[in-house]
Amino acid sequence: MVILGIDPGYAIVGCGIIRYEHNTFTLMGYGAVTTDKDMPFNKRLEKIYNDITELINKFKPDAISIERLYFNTNQKTAIDVAQARGVIVLAAEQSGIPIYEYTPLQVKQSIVGYGRAEKQQVQEMTRMFLHLDKIPKPDDAADALALAICHGHASGSLINTIGRR
User: Fold this and answer.
1) Which of the following is catalytic: 51, 101, 140, 143?
2) Whether this model's pTM surpasses 0.85
3) Does an H or E element contain 98, and which?
4) Residues with Cβ < 8 Å from 90, sequence gap 6 or more?
5) Does the annotation mark 7 as catalytic?
6) Is 80 known to be catalytic?
7) CB neighbours of 156 closer than 8 A, spacing ≥ 6?
8) Residue 30 pLDDT grade (very low, low, confident, very high; cuts 50, 70, 90)
């Protein structure tokens, strides 16, 4: 199964693509969709949509794993990230690929075994799962890979039915 993990944002969208077969994770690629702060916001959303659509067409994932958003602080940032997440979900939906949502706590639990794990612990375990020499950069890409791994772990369990949109 090919899984596209996405860490949503509007300045940086982390992306990670893995293959999960027989309890083994293989890295296919990772990176980030970036938008310039000086671009009009609607153009930023268009770029995110187009770049995610291109990734979907290139890698043809069987599933897309995306972070479920929770915000306590800046409402403007929350709304902007939610809009970016919306165009990402639209790109996935239009491609007919199932979308699975996971909270940061679920990702940490899946990757580290502890829902309150530190970001560095998650990144190090992600590196180990993928047999990499170093932690993927930017951090958003490492987070996207963790989301993809989380879905691989969840795909054979009941959490899969909970995370499905």
Assistant:
1) 140
2) yes
3) none
4) 49
5) yes
6) no
7) none
8) very high
